[in-house]
Amino acid sequence: xxxxxxxxxxxxxxxxxxxxxxxxxxxVGGADMFENKNIVENxxxxxxxxxxxxxxxxxxxxxxxxxxxxxxxxxxxxxAFAALPAGTVDTLLKPENKDMLTKVLxxxxxxxxxxxxxxxxxxxxSSDGFYHFNAVSGDALSAQVKGNNVYIIDESGNAxxxxxxxxxxxxxxxxxxxxxxxPK
Length: 184
Known about the structure:
Blueprint: H1 4-17, E1 27-28, E2 31-32, H2 39-43, H3 50-59, H4 62-66, E3 71-76, H5 78-82, H6 88-92, H7 98-106, E4 109-111, H8 116-125, E5 130-134, E6 140-146, E7 149-153, E8 159-169, E9 172-177
InterPro entries: Adhesion/Biosynth-related, FAS1_dom_sf, FAS1_domain
Domain FAS1: 36-181
Keywords: Signal
């Protein structure tokens, strides 16, 4: 017997992500992203993620994010870092603040490979409309679907919109986001 409620939800979820932003081989920051390359190998080519790449290098996380994984990375664009209070990025990039930088970056990483459709389905299925999960940093994150957008919400209640979903990598998936998730 067909469960029409489940079928309708699955159809809506598929329609939500059947956009140009989720092409088979999407471009991010003007660069092709390839499923046979790892997170680091693809990220270094994105003009929109130079700040993130510099931060990953400064935190010593290159080898981790190039490892087998799988990881789901919510990757803030350069404009997201620029929107932080003046001096924040420069302060985080100082060697003496490596632990703090690592905490911020790992608040954007989740163990496993989670597609945007999977995240959206879990949020829709929950009683409160939020999917609750933990980042590698240990910080609590939530996901919510509003209209055709998926939002990732940090512990402080700041919402970051997924602007490009499901950029598949050999060791996981990247979802480009428009703001930095700030751990408590």
